[in-house]
Design brief:
By secondary structure, the chain is of the alpha/beta class. The chain folds into three domains: 6-44 and 63-110 and 243-324, 3-Layer(bba) Sandwich (FAD/NAD(P)-binding domain); 113-240, FAD/NAD(P)-binding domain (3-Layer(bba) Sandwich); 340-429, Enolase-like, domain 1, CATH 3.30.390. It is built from seven helices and 32 strands. The protein has helices spanning 14-25, 117-120, 131-142, 155-166, 182-199, 304-318, 389-397; strands spanning 6-10, 31-36, 73-76, 80-84, 89-92, 97-99, 102-105, 109-111, 125-126, 148-151, 171-175, 203-206, 210-216, 219-225, 230-232, 235-238, 242-244, 256-257, 260-262, 268-270, 276-282, 287-290, 298-301, 333-338, 341-347, 354-361, 366-373, 376-383, 418-419, 434-436, 445-447, 457-459. A six-stranded mixed beta sheet has the order 3-2-1-7-21-20, with helices on one face. Helix 1 (14-25) packs parallel to helix 6. It is an enzyme of class 1 (oxidoreductase). Residues 405-424 are annotated as: Disordered. InterPro entries: FAD-oxidoreductase/Apoptosis (IPR050446), FAD/NAD-bd_sf (IPR036188), FAD/NAD-binding_dom (IPR023753), FAD/NAD-linked_Rdtase_dimer_sf (IPR016156), Reductase_C (IPR028202). GO terms for molecular function: oxidoreductase activity.
Amino acid sequence: MSGVGRIVVVGASLAGLRAAETLRDEGFAGSLTLVGEEPHPPYDRPPLSKQVLLGRVHAHDVGLPSRREVDARWKLGVRAVGVDPIKKRVLLADGEELPFDRLLIATGTRARPWANSDEARLDGVLTLRTNDDAARLAELLDAGPRRVLVIGAGFIGSEIASACRERGLDVTVAERGPSPLVGALGGTLGSYAGRLQRAHGVDLRCGVTVTALKGSNGRLTGAEFSDGRRIDADVAVVALGAVRNTEWLDGSGLAAGPRGVACDAGCRAFDMYGIVTDDVFVAGDVARFPHPLFEYQMLSLEHWGNAVAQAEVAAHNMISPGPRRRPHLSVPAFWSSQFGLNIKSVGVPTFSDQVVIAQGSLREGRFVAVYGYRGRVTAAVSVNRAKWLEHYQYLIETAAPFPPAPGAADRSGSPAPVPSDVPSAQLLSHGPTVALTGHLPDRHLILVRAESPPTAAHAR
């Protein structure tokens, strides 16, 4: 811990809070400052699209419990606008400069806005990311709108649609891709999710986009679709994925961009030349990091568990000498509750070429789907059958052969695998919650040297 007297954490949400707690748990006694753009203390985001929209809890009553006092200075409601890597200072929008010996970037993501700014300003059009967003959406749903339009059928969009139907509200879901959740779970489970939504009364429209939001006197009245159809709607929720908060790092010299901030497995940020830094660390949704289980591709994860685990590793490494640092190698995991189902996942379903229903059946609505890539297990998704996931996590960690061997309690043999049908991100109207941002493993990097700039490269 020698030479580390001042730590600044930019991002005062889940990852920032857990990092601060870990720093104190491991004996850091120096100056600790947390900077957050939102004015609220750290709060839990998963309930915003679930319990809050169902009226079971108020949007401003979902604060994150503290595991311990962190004895920190909190700068809330203030944006970080830059980093001076020479003077080692974080620049704030209010003009203050925060010196640091170690910096943790945990700025997370924000909701992708509707592209047409005039339409986005219509009363009744909103996104769902913050507790203020959730409070406003819950208020609109309480008013009993004639119809809710959800644009995008990823996990957030699907959970919003589920809450609307549980409230008895008419809801239309528009998805550019072939089915809901396809960008996260592939075609087999995506098709199942589509049938499930329609069975619960959702007006699900796949393979289309919303081309315009219509309004009158500043209020939303409806929408037009790429297939020429129109609907009337009082509320439109834009669920088009997330934007990583990296713009404030422009000019910092760090490897930061739309896909996040690149770092090594020890959470140390890379600079723009691919050289690892020793005083800037990254954690949470904004991080891109390599994982050996997935052929060292750079992973970007928007998962609660990953934010916690990565923040703890980053905090430990910030104050530990090199030989005592450890890698962030936990297996990705997430969960969702929608349309009466409990969906849980381990691994990276999109890192796959095949999938097999290893236990249960789609017809029963209780099953485990196991994903494989090049003959080894890479992910498993359970629907109302979560107790088996620990077993499949072990198979992922040990690179077990795919398809998995028979022997589950309710199976005498294993059905034949089918293609996982993971679509190109260009076919989706929402981003996946897991993004593989390196070159595909079966592609080769070709350096173009003849009569080309020395930095030119492309993949084939």
